[in-house]
Specification:
The protein has 699 residues and is mainly alpha-helical. It is built from 40 helices and no strands.
Length: 699
């Protein structure tokens, strides 16, 4: 079932992806954009919104298809989901895209649920039934698969993918007659050809109708003896059907395949395996070395080469090949523990090299894997243990995993580099269309006073297409209008970097930087300041803001460096010395702080904060008589300066001037009622004055 599941995987999105390159969707997008602009000019907001939503539905749905074709599945899923949210009209198409996506990524239950949503509204939707049938098939629910695929086949009689999977489902149910009828209809509809015969033969082969498979491959060869892989498939089917009895027939088939294509990997591999089993070791080694060169990351050719070299007595080389096969099989369960055969042969090889301890390890491992294969038939187990026959079923599994038959079923392989480049360019167009449509939705929402929705749509615009003209600038402005200045910084920076009205963006960032520093929103403020400094490293005010940010984060040394750099750029900048003094206090460098405050006061003698902090330093140094007049001067300049009353009250308390201390501390408490340090000093002065109850209350 696992190999068969890989065999029927397919890309239903092929037609849709190719349609993405056509002019139709693009023309419709242009029409809808023009209509939306016209409606806006006429003030018809609802109709403008409807047109814009339809643009989103088309653009995002096409993106989903293109990303799926490029195997960017997460982006494809997001695009289809956003298309469904954006436009009711495009919902069915995007639901189908999601269903196909879930099929391709093995999310079968999600795929079933999504397909059923389509069928609720349109029970005759052929693609939904087709995809649902494929999912049931891959789940092994063949009866349900037949039911869905039959309905789809009635609606789309000539569809190869539907017909082929339906025939496979019938074969899985051991009903070859309706499968054969479908194959005959395909021959009539599509025209009988060697390639169609090979496709039919493969269906019979994977479902183990071997005589029928041989008949189809022989018919393909009769039509064209040079058709690629027909001889290979014939030889392989004969081996699966008759095993060792078919060695001669299979060998002839593989040799004919190699006449057509000497570098056919699997033909070399299988021919080498047959030659090994028939003890023609010299040619076997030659064929298997070719296979190793063509697929150096596969364990199978190394395993077969090791067997052939062992039989030829080349024990050293055999050991190397077998060890490589084991190294390339990190999980033995992935090939049903068939690597145990290589452990067995390697054990015997190591015995021949007199490396007995190593040999015992591999022989024991071989026995363990033999037990893990208990579900195999007894004959296969016997062949495995004795080494009398190559396990061709294991090699077939490797072939089916490597071949990617999905490309054969729909003739839509993974895109080559040139096609992928076309898809990428097409996706660029639809991403830009989506970005412009989201920006148009934001404009409509802004005009209707729905700023949060406008922000959401602009977020989507820059997410889908960062190069949407003006989108980052508009997003930053919208976030400002919505009352979220911190969130506005990043889009405004991006707008400036992308040249979206860079001077306007920089001015907004500068205003924001000051505002955010004052609000102590350190991260967005830091982003704003750092960006502005990149292009304006000699602007002193920016270094002043940088100093504030460093100080807010407790990095006082860095803050001091920023303030002093500010003063080097502009010695007379207001508050420069004052701020340097404040961080020097935090660093415990009080005398240097005093010098900075005095420098600030030389420039502005009535600078209240510089006066206060100079007094603070003097109080800290017990220079009360010098500090007291400074604090009184601060209070005259700013009568509500709570800390000035507090420091003055502390001095008076230390000097036992209890009435004055009480008055100043109570005034400080009035202006700063939540300040714990003020209440603490009040409790002390009340206690000294004998006011025990007031002291307890303050404490």
């Amino acid at each position: 079932m696992r190999a068969l599941a890989g065999f029927v995987a397919f890309l239903l999105a092929a037609g849709m992806a190719l349609a993405a390159q056509s002019a139709g969707p693009r023309e419709r997008i242009d029409e809808l954009f023009q209509s939306s602009f016209d409606r806006i000019g006429e003030g018809e907001w609802e109709r403008a919104e409807s047109d814009t939503r339809e643009v989103l539905g088309i653009a995002l749905d096409q993106l989903g298809v293109l990303y799926a074709a490029l195997e960017r599945f997460d982006e494809a899923e997001r695009a289809h989901r956003e298309a469904i949210r954006a436009s009711v009209a495009g919902g069915s198409t995007s639901l189908l895209g999601l269903t196909i996506l879930y099929l391709r990524t093995g999310q079968y239950e999600k795929g079933i649920q999504t397909a059923q949503k389509i069928l609720e509204f349109n029970p005759l939707h052929p693609e939904a039934r087709h995809t649902l049938g494929k999912i049931y098939f891959l789940q092994g629910r063949f009866g349900e698969a037949v039911s869905e695929l039959s309905d789809s086949y009635r609606l789309r009689r000539g569809d190869l993918s539907v017909a082929y999977t339906l025939a496979l489902a019938y074969l899985e149910l051991q009903r070859p007659e309706p499968a054969a009828q479908i194959f005959e209809e395909l021959k009539e509809t599509l025209g009988d050809s060697p390639r169609l015969r090979i496709l039919i033969g493969r269906a019979y082969r994977v479902t183990e109708f071997f005589p029928e498979a041989v008949r189809e491959f022989e018919a393909a060869i009769a039509m064209d003896p040079t058709v690629p892989r027909a001889h290979h498939y014939l030889g392989l089917t004969q081996l699966l059907w008759k095993r060792a009895l078919a060695f001669d027939e299979a060998e002839r088939a593989f040799r004919r395949e190699l006449e057509i294509d000497p570098k056919a990997y699997f033909a070399n591999l299988f021919l080498g395996a047959i030659l090994t089993q028939t003890r023609r070791n010299e040619e076997a080694v030659e064929r298997l070395r070719l296979a190793v060169e063509m697929s150096p990351e596969s364990p199978d050719p190394y395993a077969q080469l090791g067997q052939a070299l062992f039989q030829a007595g080349e024990y050293g080389l055999a050991a190397q090949a077998l060890e490589k096969a084991i190294e390339l099989t990190p999980d033995p369960s992935l090939n049903d523990f068939r690597i145990g055969r290589s452990h067995y042969v390697l054990g015997r090889t190591l015995l021949a090299l007199d490396r007995r301890e190593e040999a015992q390890v591999h022989l024991e491992r071989s026995r363990e894997y033999k037990q893990a294969q208990s579900r195999l038939e007894s004959a296969e187990l016997q062949a495995y243990v004795t080494g009398t026959e190559v396990d061709f079923r294991g090699l077939v599994g490797a072939e089916q995993r490597a071949e990617n038959p999905a490309a054969v079923i729909l003739n839509f392989p993974a895109p080559d580099p040139e096609t992928a480049a076309v898809f990428e360019r097409t996706a660029d167009f639809y991403r830009l269309a989506a970005g412009n449509a989201y920006q148009q939705m934001a404009r409509i929402m802004t005009e209707r006073g729905r700023l949060e929705r406008a922000v959401h749509y602009l977020d989507q615009a820059v997410s889908w297409e960062p190069d949407t003209p003006g989108a980052f600038l508009n997003l930053g402005i919208a976030r400002l209008k919505a009352g979220d200045p911190a969130a506005a910084v990043v889009p405004l920076i991006e707008a400036a970097r992308r040249g979206q009205s860079p001077e306007e963006a920089k001015q907004l960032i500068a205003n924001l930087a000051l505002r955010l520093v004052e609000q102590r929103q350190r991260e967005p403020a830091g982003q704003a300041v750092a960006f502005l400094l990149e292009s304006n490293p000699e602007v002193p005010e920016l270094h002043l803001l940088r100093g504030h940010l460093e100080a807010q984060q407790g990095r006082f040394g860095e803050a001091l460096e920023a303030y002093r750099h500010t003063l080097r750029l502009a010695p007379g900048l207001p508050d420069g010395h004052y701020w340097a003094g404040t961080v020097l206090i935090r660093l415990g460098r009080l005398e240097e702080a005093l010098t900075e405050f005095e420098a600030e006061l030389e420039r502005v003698p009535d600078h209240p904060k510089a006066l206060y902090h100079k007094a603070f330093v003097l109080v800290s140094n017990q220079r009360f008589d010098e500090a007291r007049p400074l604090l009184e001067r601060v209070i005259r300049l700013e009568p509500a300066y709570a800390d000035a009353y507090y420091q003055l009250g502390k001095i008076q308390l230390e000097q036992d001037q209890l009435l004055l201390a009480t008055a100043n501390l109570e005034t400080a408490a009035y202006h700063a009622p939540a300040a714990a340090h003020v209440q603490y000093q009040l409790s002390r002065v009340y206690a000294k004055a004998g006011r025990e109850e007031d002291s307890r209350r303050a404490l």
